[in-house]
Amino acid sequence: MYAIEIQNLTKKFRIYADQGHSLKEKMLSGKRRKYDERTVLDDFSLNVRQGEAIGLVGKNGCGKSTLLKLMSRILYPESGSVKLKGRVSSLIELGAGFHPDMTGRENIFTNASIFGLTHKEIEAQLDEIIAFSEMEEFIDNPVRTYSSGMYMRLAFSVAIHVGADILLIDEILAVGDAAFQAKCFERLMEIKAAGTTIVIVSHSLAQLEQICDRTVWIENGKIRMEGPPNTVHPEYLDFMGQQRHHSTPAAAAPAKEAAEKEEKTETPAHWTDICLLNQAGERISTFRTGDTVTLQLTYEADPENAEEALIGLALYRADNALCYGTNTQRERMKPLKLKKKGVIRCVFSPMNLIAGSYWFDVALRRMDMFAYDYAAHAVRFTVYNTIDETGVSRLVHEWQIDAE
């Protein structure tokens, strides 16, 4: 049995080119104002089984939030139908339905009644709602005095205590401290186990993998892919990485071009190309945590005038933090006898950096550390991961839990 049935849904928005700056301008140009019509959802169909938890992913503007608003009747489509069976609770806009001059307690009654609860039903749940939100100290203060985190805690607490059959969530779990987020996840898993249907929008793929049975990837108003999260997410990450690469010129520019721009003095040896390769030998600028990655360095030299050399590299994160540095001399390798042309490869297997943006600086030096060539920001790259880790690197580990 389906809890949500969406058939051939189309939703369009008008984007006006000239908004007008005054009331007079708006009145006079009302019939002549030009606009572009943008189709956000295009003949979109989706069925969600009762008790299923699905995650919606896609780049900003693909229609995820619009879809949730159509489900909750905040918006209405141009064509198509949305059928939901049972009581619907939604967390789409932070504090929506809260009146700033009313107290938290008063807003609980107002907000819960919007979800269809009677006054008697709200009174029966009141203490539990307040206790879960951890807002006892502030519950009788006007909500305009609340922080965004306090808003979220109260709104989330109301939404999960209304006995909904369908729960719609839009990025709401990104707000709040770590302890409360963990508490929310635990409660969501309890709600799911009780048979509630959940639709959640989140840019945190790790969150979706913990909660969802299925991920739906939306692209240009249509479903591009759907299936188990561990099947969809790698494909989605690869796509987003390619998009980032195409939109970032010189993401992996050859070091020779960088050197020419800096008008370096000629030396007996210099880099001609620096890039990252995957296992298939293809140039890449994005990869997943744990992939095997090769840093390939190509140089040219004048063997008669170039002395023996060493190779150095430094890995930096986007915030300029030095993550790792080494050179061939420190690693007790033999000095490099430079040829007219040569290729040097450094293989990282696996490359266990956690998600983030990084770059390599690469140096070609004489053994006395004189720099033949130093390529700063030689190759930039992005690491993706479906596990929500923190720090710089994933340490190889194994959990061993004894159970009685």
Which CATH top level class of the largest domain fits? Alpha Beta
Give me the CATH superfamily of the largest domain. Answer: P-loop containing nucleotide triphosphate hydrolases
Helix content: 25-40%
Please give the alpha-carbon distance between the first and last residues.
Answer: 39 Å
Number of domains: 2
Describe the structure.
The longest helix is centred in the middle third of the chain and has 19 residues. This protein starts with a strand and ends in a 20-residue tail after the last strand. Helices cover 25% and strands 34% of the residues. It folds into 2 domains: 243 residues, P-loop containing nucleotide triphosphate hydrolases (Rossmann fold), CATH 3.40.50.300; 130 residues, Coagulation Factor XIII, Chain A, domain 1 (Distorted Sandwich), CATH 2.70.50.60. Strand 6, helix 6 and strand 7 form a beta-alpha-beta unit. The chain has 404 residues and is an alpha/beta fold. It is elongated, with a radius of gyration of 28 Å. Helix 3 crosses helix 4 and helix 4 packs across helix 5.
What is the secondary structure topology, with strand pairs?
Elements: E1 2-16, H1 23-28, E2 35-49, E3 53-57, H2 64-71, E4 79-84, E5 88-91, H3 104-114, H4 119-133, H5 148-160, E6 166-170, H6 178-193, E7 197-201, H7 205-211, E8 214-219, E9 222-227, H8 229-247, H9 255-261, E10 269-277, E11 283-284, E12 286-288, E13 293-301, E14 309-317, E15 322-327, E16 341-348, E17 356-366, E18 371-384
Parallel strand pairs: 3-7, 3-8, 5-6, 6-7, 12-18
Antiparallel strand pairs: 1-2, 1-4, 8-9, 10-11, 10-13, 13-16, 14-15, 14-17, 17-18
Helix pairs in contact: 3-4, 3-5, 4-5
